[in-house]
Amino acid sequence: MGQAKILNAVGSIGGVASAASALAGALGGDLPGDWQSSLRQASYRGVPFGVLAGEVTFGRKNAVHRYPKRDGVWVEDMGREARLYHLTAFLVENSAVYGGGGVVGQRDRLIRAFETAGDGELVHPTLGRVKVSALEGHSLERWDTGRYFELTLVFIEAGERRFPTNGTSTGDALSAVADSLNAASVLSFAKQILSAVKLGAAVVQQAVSTALGWYVAAVGLVHDVKRFFGAVSTLAGNFGRLFGGGNSGYSAAAKKVKQSTTVGDLIRNDAAARTAVTQAGVALVAAAGHVSDTATFGAKAQGLAAALAASAVDPDDRIRLLLSLGSYQPDSANTSSAIGVAMATMQSACADLFRRCAVSQLILAVGAFQPRSADEASGMAAMVSDVLAAEALRAGDQGEDDVYLQLMAANKAVVADLKARGGNLAAVADFGFSDNLPALMLAQRMYRDPSRSDDLIVQADAVHPAFMPTKFKALAS
């Protein structure tokens, strides 16, 4: 029997499998792992073909480093290597297994499939469906095989098209400008009091008095009732949800504490935070007694602002408290003597330093704030920008160029951060309903997502989740 007739009888991978199975039976056993029944009809981009042999190349992507005068090498593992698939295949005219029609037409269709741009799907006889890119193909035609074309096909495993992109972390930028503002503020404070502090104890006492006033203001803020309710907003379950802050974005993104945490645990944590504020205030007043050590005094002032910020779990509360702390303004001195002028200079310099310490913590708090809508992000950016612009104007009027530049850089960083995180969020829209409906029903009706009911409750400021207001503002989508 001629070679062409033998190949025609085999026909395709199915014919080869049948022959192999018959051979295994004659030898007295079945193929291990039920190999024949697991075979799949081979194809690429829907063009079928038979397979005589296949080879898979796999391994690790290693970079071998060789060094002079060293016998060994260092192999750097760079991840898994892409798999290569080598197939020795064939096309046969009017195959009894896969059909296909004329062999020339089959070859032309396979060539077009190989030359089509992009990744394609390879159906491997034993590996199944694989996403690959075609590297090259060879078609061998012989006069003695007639309507049988032999193929050599090479594929490589395809991956996602991913490229590294350069970008600036807006959170890191906020931290950097806050640190720079702190450093510039302390340096400016040292320059302002350089002459005044030489005039004696009355001037130093003025620093102590001003620090004490700011400390009292911070203690009053740390006992804020709304801040205390925010302390339990991270509690798992409905209790924490109902006491969540007004920052809806935060309530959706905040990590809950462990299930074993109780209200008592959170209250104890809050008590520790209040104690930290008190201790930071005491340290500030003590440092004010040695105000000529401006580095220590500045560090203690920053510590008090940081302690107050840390006491507020909800970033919305944190921003509110820092805005209040940053508006501190002591009563001005009413004397025109040389000592009185020096005391007024010390008082003004301390007040400037304290405000800027609060502003630097405000910048960091903006990074933790999660806007719930584009409108809220824009509103927060405008509010913080007004605070920074007012402080920059004051610094500019006083000739504090470094502080002015840092405040302007902070303004730019805050706007960029809120724009990056909130610019693409949905806008706020007005909603109206004829009756007080449950939050679950409204979330399903408005967003086709009942899991958004918690955020909807906060946005609408509902008295009870089962009786939502008939009119409220919420995310449009």
From TrEMBL:
Domain DNA circulation N-terminal positions: 39-132
Cross-referenced InterPro entries: DNA_circ_N (IPR009826), Phage_Baseplate_Assmbl_Protein (IPR052399)
Highest taxon, organism lineage: Bacteria
Signal peptide: none
PANTHER family the record matches: PHAGE-LIKE ELEMENT PBSX PROTEIN XKDT, PROTEIN JAYE-RELATED
The protein's name: DNA circulation family protein
Source organism (scientific name): Cupriavidus pauculus
